[in-house]
Amino acid sequence: MSILVSAIGQGLIWAVLGLGLFLTFRILNFADMSVEGTFPLGAATAVALIHNGVNPYLAMLAAAGAGALAGLVTGLLYTKGKIPILLAGILTMTAIFSINLRILNGANLSLLNQKTVLNSHFMQQLPPFFNTVFVGMIVLAVIIGGLIYLLQTNFGQAFIATGNNPTMAQSFGINSDSMTIFGLMLSNALIAFGGALIAQNNGYADVNMGIGIIVIALASIIIGEVAFGDLSLNFRLIAIAVGSIFYRFVLLLVLQLGFNPNDLNLLSAIVLALALLTPKLQHIFKIKNVLKGSVTRHE
C-alpha cells in the first residue's frame, strides 16, 4: 500500500513538469530543450535559499522566477536572434549548468535538517508518503485551475492562436513574438517550480538532475493522450496529471520485476516510445481487421 501511495504522490508532483512542457510542446508546437536546465535551476535556487534560512514557499516562488528568466533568454534568442528553437534551448541549457554550479557552490547541496514544504509539522502527522499526495493535489489544482482560466481569456486565446498559425495570428494584430516569449517564460517557470518541489521531496539538489527530464515530462503528456484520446483543452491538462501517475505505475511495475534502477532513463525512453507508437499500431491493426473482414465477406 505504501508503495502505491508513493507512486501516486510522485506522479502528482512530477505532473507539474508535464503541464509546463505542454505549453510549448502542444500549444506552441515545438520542443524546448532548455527545460533540462531550468529543472535543476529551480531545484538549485530553492535548495540554496532554504539552506540560507529563506521560507520554503518563498524559495519556490524565487525558483519559478529564475525559470521564467531562463525562458526569457531562450525566447529572445529564438524570436529576436532568429536562432532555431532547438539550438536556442541547448544554448540556454548549457549556460544554466554553470549557473547552477555557482548557486550550489558545488555539484550538489543537501537539505538535511532543513524545513521544507513536505516536512512541516502538519505533514509529519500524515501517514507515510501522504505528504506528497497532499501537496501534489493542491499544487496541481492551483496550476491547472490557473491555466484553464488563463487559456479562456482573450490573452490566452491569442496565445493558442499563435501556436496554431503564427501568420494568421499576426494578421489579427497578435504579436506572435511576445506570445512565444510569454509561453517559454511560463513553461520554464512551471518546470523550475516543479524542480524546486521535487528537490525538497528528494532532500537535495544536483546539477545533473535535469538529464532526461524532457522525456519524463513528455511521457506524462503522451500517456494521458493515448489513454483518454481526443479531449477538450481543459481536460487534456487533467489527463496530463493522470498520465504522470500511470507513468509512475509503469516504472514501479518494471522495477518490481527486477530491473536495475540505473536503467531508469532507458526504461523511461522505452515507455515513451511505446506510448508514441500506440496510435500508429492501433491504426495498422484496425486496417488489417477491416481488410480481413472484407476478404471474409467476399469469400
Shape call: globular
Strand order of the largest sheet: 1-2
> What is the number of beta strands?
2
CATH fold-type name: ABC transporter involved in vitamin B12 uptake, BtuC
Strand and helix order: HHHHEHHHHHEHHH
Q: Report the portion of residues in β strands.
A: under 5%
Identify low-pLDDT runs: none
Rg result: 20 Å
Terminal Cα span: 54 Å
Helix content: over 70%
- For this structure, the quaternary state is single chain
Characterise the protein shown here.
This protein has helices at residues 2-27, 35-51, 56-79, 85-104, 121-124, 130-152, 154-164, 166-171, 176-202, 213-228, 233-256, 264-298, and strands at 108-110, 204-206. It is an all-alpha fold. The protein is 78% helix and 2% strand. It has a single domain, classed as ABC transporter involved in vitamin B12 uptake, BtuC (Orthogonal Bundle), CATH 1.10.3470. The mean pLDDT is 90. 45% of the residues are buried. The chain starts with a helix and ends with a helix. A two-stranded antiparallel sheet has the order 1-2. It is globular and about 55 Å long. The longest helix is centred in the C-terminal third of the chain and has 35 residues, at 264-298. α1 (2-27) crosses α10 (213-228), α2 runs antiparallel to α3 and α2 (35-51) packs across α9 (176-202).
